[in-house]
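Build the 3D complex.
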Amino acid sequence: MSAREDILDRIKAALRDAPATPDIPRNYRLATDKTAGQRLEQLVDRLVDYKANVFVVPAAEVPAKLAELLAGSAKIVVPHGLPREWLSGLPGKDDAGSPAVEVDSPERRLTVAELDAVDAVVTGAAVAVSETGTIMLDGSPSQGRRIISLVPDRHICVLRADDVVEVLPEAVARLDATAPQTWISGPSATSDIELERVEGVHGPRTLDVVILT
Amino acid sequence: MSGTFLGMPALPVYGHGNLNATEPFPKAAHRELGNAQLRANLGHATRTIRDKRLHVVSELPDWEDMRDAGSAIKNATMANLPALLEQFEANFTARGGIIHWARDAQEANQVVTELIQATGETEVVKVKSMATQEIGLNEYLQEQGIAAFETDLAELIVQLDRDLPSHILVPAIHKNRSQIREIFLREMEDVDPELTNEPARLAEAARRHLRRKFLTAKVAVSGANFGLADTGTLAVVESEGNGRMCLTLPETLITVMGIEKLLPSWRDLEVFMQLLPRSSTGERMNPYTSLWTGTTPGDGPQNVHLVLLDNGRTAALADELGRTALNCIRCSACMNVCPVYERTGGHAYGSTYPGPIGAILSPLMTGIKSEENNSLPYASSLCGACFDACPVKINIPEILVHLRGVDVDSQRSKVKVPSQMDLMMKGAEWAFSDGAHLNLLEKGLPVGRLAAGRDKVIKKLPGLAGKWTQSRDIPAPPGQSFRQWWAKEHGAADGVEPSVGDQQSEGKQSEGEQA
Ligand code: SF4
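Done.
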């Protein structure tokens, strides 16, 4: 008998008393009761608590904010679906101090070594949960492959205020389960040594969140 | 699932590997209690996490509703496990993943080894996982000439020191920063000799040490926190990003998951991703969660395997009173509130699963007759703190008592002559059957005080009771019993008949002292 059949048979034997399947009481909160403004405030509070840098700016100021944040970076990577206008504030190709922008796309996937040489990555986000301070990436074109937001030491994430929900069930309802997802709540951190929190172990050590209103 | 199973009612098949303690709890606990460093570290850690947890739990108005949902979802999972496993398998496979089944630790180790050998690699990176710890995968791989590198900081510390984890969540909690520095200086070939014991510097050293490994690894091995049946999705919850590194960079990913880790549907994750981080690290959410369903072209590993592990889980499931132990999501909240764990630490439990949950899960999976695990259900004060803390409401104290009963029954069949315990129970039966009997015995109290000596503490009792005083002192008994005191204070006028001999202790003590 195969291990599969064996195990399934063992389970069926173990359940010979036919335990009842309970109804699931979903009395927990399924929807937001905060206003958009309160959600934004809560999200900022949580992200700052996680040691992320947060900037709330009107859409028109996103290019300038990104240019400012990227001023010290020589090389950046962006996913192919990132709105191009967000990068329009970067100085021109020939200007001194302009970062080299690499685009990661299905046609040209950057290697691990190439990503390791990059200073920062700029991505969008699918949805964010204010109550827990969590930003979800689901691999869609504005967010790219999981690896690009992982290897560079700095992750700049641009999030639309419209995509901020309050509680986790709202976010789960918006996401496609089968997409490769990364949920991010602050930068990489460890508390393994005497429970003292240290930011940045393997993932990006800096997380900047630009929230576009 | 239709409940029609027509095969023979099989006997439970128990698990192996690191589920079995190498020595009985009382013996191990006695040694660990002597380790003052361990006790200090643990006391600090459990207190800190406990306070953080209470804080973030109190923020949520619907915490109890979430626990109710979590508990019901898990019970529903167990009731329909065969159908859910098949559904999970179909969905995971449809998206390019490959499923393997393993009856026990040995079989799981073999499957993983063969998968690694097929890639031609001799090194793998690992995400912290209880399941691979349980089956002793690292040791097995080493025997086959494959080096497995732990990438979680705490697991790395433990691995470099050839030690064992002592806590589910913070496996190196028994080591302080200076000890960790020494381990790094001794074991990391590429370490900076100027390394200080600052946690940030130590974490940096680990980052450098592992970065090359991550960027070049071809194969990774992980566990999984959840498997979602209706979509075939797997989830790994972590903090450092070592999980993301292992789950996205290599070409081949092999995950080992216990069959009990399933949830029926994708939306159930909304409950468990609230319950787990708050219960375990006391955070509103852990820094990183990764979710994958089979393979995604161009994104992450393209050879994705999942080993579904039994290893005694079906035996636990067969125990109608104990099966809810399988609902455990390994958050470690129960150990952080346990007065026994706080003093002995995780090593004393011997098995991969320490603390209150370990005290029931390990004997359920190995069978209570397993010599070294039959003392585990006694490693508890039955205070109930673990039940209150458990996000999926596992009634650990009730299962402990149930397993003690199973143990006593299994011992009874072995014993011929009445044991000391039997005699003591007979004695107790006599004493409590009649007030006069008890009164007679209580006259012996002053003798106990004599035995205690000047410091009013009894350090060693004879016989079976001696086991109790092995690791604790007992206060001297009071000079008189409550009944004697009452009779003296209120006399016969209050309707209580002073029995013969009640005046004996008079004049010596004003009242019973409490030590
Ligand atoms: S038994 Fe409950 S509290 Fe203990 S680790 Fe499991 S889920 Fe957490």
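The pocket of iron/sulfur cluster is lined by residues B 279, 328-334, 357, 389-392, 394 (CB under 6 Å).
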